[in-house]
Predict the structure.
Amino acid sequence: MSEVSEFEGISGEDVQIIQAIIKSFYGSGTAARFNSSTISEETVKEMAVLLTETADCSQWMDAVPNPSDILMPTKNLKKWALRLLRNAGKPFLTGTEGVTVACKNVRAAQFKHQIILSLKY
């Protein structure tokens, strides 16, 4: 796995997954803003929260672990967030994400501001 970002542990495939998730929630224009130089640790954490909060409407989220400390900073949270993006994000690459439109729209509106602000410029 090659490192492509200052954020430790993120690969080119991770960037593609993040872009696919963002495209699904916010469209291509917003997804284009997410690249190896703009994705921060905070971006990964905010996106993990977005995916977790979407769990109630998403079939694929049933198998994803839901740690009780998702909203509390821990040293394992970064690893958990990346694992979540890698596992749960793969359906976004293939277009088989399985989230309801209503849930996606509500969660997209709820988290867009925090996710965009987490980017490095």
